[in-house]
Automatic annotation (TrEMBL), chain A:
Entry-linked Pfam families: ABC_tran
Family in the record: Belongs to the ABC transporter superfamily.
Keyword set includes Nucleotide-binding: yes
Protein's name according to its UniProt entry: Manganese/zinc/iron transport system ATP-binding protein
InterPro entries in the record: AAA+_ATPase (IPR003593), ABC_transporter-like_ATP-bd (IPR003439), ABC_transporter-like_CS (IPR017871), Metal_Ion_Import_ABC (IPR050153), P-loop_NTPase (IPR027417)
CDD domains hit by this protein: ABC_Metallic_Cations (cd03235)
Keywords associated with the record: ATP-binding, Nucleotide-binding, Transport
Domain ABC transporter stretches: 6-237
GO molecular-function terms, A-Z: ATP binding
UniProtKB/TrEMBL annotation, chain B:
Localization terms from the record: Cell membrane
One Pfam family this sequence matches: ABC-3
Residues annotated as signal peptide: none
Record family assignment: Belongs to the ABC-3 integral membrane protein family.
TM region(s), chain numbering: 6-29, 41-59, 65-83, 95-113, 141-159, 171-194, 200-219, 226-245, 251-272
PANTHER family associated with the record: ABC-TRANSPORTER METAL-BINDING PROTEIN (PTHR30477), METAL TRANSPORT SYSTEM MEMBRANE PROTEIN CT_069-RELATED (PTHR30477:SF3)
Name recorded for this polypeptide: Manganese/zinc/iron transport system permease protein
Length: 240, 289
């Protein structure tokens, strides 16, 4: 757990001249489960979108596995916020999960039987097997999140970056997602997760990045999860 | 019925049928994305391109007129982008502006040309407003076939990218798909199909070939590939019947005839499709959505 698998150096991101992230530095420890915590408007989603190169920063660098190239992104499975997806799209649960295999197929090859098996086992992990032929618009919030995580598992990446995966889902799904994340950690995976519920940070995560435009405190949960740090993020600079 | 074995009719019908199949498949993407009216704006905006091309070459030859249409389709799209990116005008506002101003410009040019003794043989120009498949030449049909087959091939090659991008654009870009490229691809196919289909269906109604089949497909299936297939087939069937009607009965323009058949199919689908009104009423035990 010593290697920094992602490094962010002096990142500045702005929307229409309004800074969303200001001189931010952080590192993601390999094999950790790291929470990104901060008030609304703190730039949490902006940070992970910058890492995923979905947003062009004003300045600063993002290193993934020691590389700055776009190809390094293939090592990351990204789980978007629910609202970013076209839910009316005519597709089934299994088809969505199979999209995770795209990285391994290139753009001309169609998914084969083996990809299907991988997708089915990912669905099994998320207990969504019975829903495989369901139209995605018929799923509940929790079920949708399970499908997204199954797609990420299917991608078989080393790093998982998730934007508020526990937002607005049922408690059973929340427990299942956390259990799955912890068992994937045993397999050597790394997690960077935007998290909003302060009460569960210590239970779910071993590392945290507390931020508000820039990093207030980051590191081992035992060291950084103090009232002082949290207050600092939420009160003093909480200009949300 | 004699018409069915007529060589001319068959050539024309093959053209409109293939065009509508391709337009149905490719148009489904914008229907799902909720951007159907981009096709409408572009369809109307091609009209001044047709007239200007005619003014340049002086004859109603298909090739230069089609190129004029393509150029104006592209210009219209850039204007739409320009307006939405650099002003507070929303997409629907920009589309309405471009649609009416470009088409108005086209109509003004048309009356100038038709009232000007310097231009002869201007009557063929009217066909580009509502379409007249009966006057299509073999070259017109060839252009349609080439454009349609090329579009469908491109669609098949980029099928995975188009599918993932349409469903989840953000995710698609994180797994190495270039969203801008997919967007340009779909748009280019759309403009191309509009341009070659103008003479058959006309600038005003061509958007229906892109929208109605997708709507029909979505009413019958939850699978992307099956939706595309139904869209293509319903487009093709409507085009064939519509072309037959307009060839058999003088005075029926082709565009309106095809669109009327399509509208009947849309209506039937809304009633009896998988999520149709009648289906839901009599199948309450089914899915509770």
């Amino acid at each position: 757990m010593d290697k920094d698998i992602i490094k962010v150096n002096d990142l500045i991101v702005a929307y229409d001249d309004e800074p969303a992230i200001w001189h931010l530095n952080m590192a993601l420890k390999e094999n950790s489960i790291t929470a990104i915590v901060g008030p609304n408007g703190a730039g949490k989603s902006t940070l992970i979108k910058s890492i995923m190169q979905l947003i062009k920063p004003v300045s600063g660098e993002v290193w993934i596995n020691g590389s700055k190239s776009r190809k390094a992104l293939k090592e990351i499975a990204y789980v978007p916020q629910k609202g970013e997806v076209n839910w009316d799209f005519p597709t089934t649960v299994l088809d969505v999960v199979m999209m995770g295999r795209y990285v391994h197929k290139g753009w001309l090859k169609r998914p084969n039987k083996k990809d299907r098996e991988i997708a089915m086992s990912a669905l099994r992990v998320m207990k969504m097997e019975a829903f495989r032929n369901r139209q995605i618009s018929e799923l509940s919030g929790g079920q949708r999140q399970r499908v997204f995580l199954a797609r990420a598992i299917c991608q078989n990446a080393g790093i998982y970056i998730m934007d508020e995966p526990l937002q607005g889902i049922d408690i059973t799904t929340e427990k299942l997602i956390i259990k799955t994340i912890k068992s994937l950690q045993q397999e050597g995976k790394t997690f960077l997760i935007v998290h909003h519920n302060l009460d569960t940070v210590e239970e779910y995560f071993d590392h945290a990045v507390i931020m508000n435009k820039s990093v207030i405190a980051a590191g081992d949960i035992q060291d950084v999860w103090t009232k002082e740090n949290i207050d600092k993020a939420y009160m003093e600079m909480g200009a949300g | 019925m004699e018409l069915l074995s007529s060589y001319t009719f068959l050539i024309v019908a093959i053209g409109t049928t293939i065009l509508s199949f391709a337009a149905g498949v490719i148009g489904t993407v914008s229907v799902i994305k909720g951007q159907s009216l981009i096709g409408d704006a572009i369809g109307h905006a091609t009209f001044p391109g047709v007239i200007l091309a005619f003014m340049l070459v002086g004859v109603t030859d298909t090739l230069p007129l089609t190129i004029g249409a393509i150029i104006f389709g592209v210009i219209a799209f850039f204007f739409i982008q320009l307006i939405t990116n650099h002003s507070k005008v929303t997409l629907d506002g920009a589309l309405a502006l471009i649609l009416s101003s470009f088409f108005g410009f086209g109509m003004a040019l048309k009356s100038y040309v038709q009232g000007n003794p310097g231009f002869s043989n201007t009557q063929g120009i009217d066909d580009y407003i509502f379409g007249q498949a009966a006057y299509m030449l073999r070259l017109d049909v060839w252009l349609i076939i080439i454009a349609s087959v090329a579009s469908l091939l491109l669609f098949m090659i980029f099928y995975q990218q188009i599918r993932i991008y349409t469903f989840d654009p953000v995710y698609s870009s994180t797994i190495g798909i270039n969203p801008a490229l997919v967007n340009v691809l779909v748009l280019s196919m759309t403009i191309l199909l509009i341009a070659v289909g103008l003479k058959a269906v006309g600038a005003i109604l061509i958007v229906n070939l892109l929208i109605a089949p997708g709507v029909i497909g979505l009413l019958w299936s939850d699978r992307f590939n099956i939706v595309l297939l139904i869209a293509g087939l319903s487009g093709a069937v409507s085009a064939f019947i519509g072309t037959y009607i307009s060839t058999a009965y003088a005075g029926f323009a082709t565009g309106p005839s095809i669109i009327l058949v399509m509208s009947v199919l849309v209506f039937i689908s809304m009633m009896f499709g998988k999520r149709g009104l009648v289906t839901r009423k009599f199948n309450l035990r089914g899915d509770a959505t």
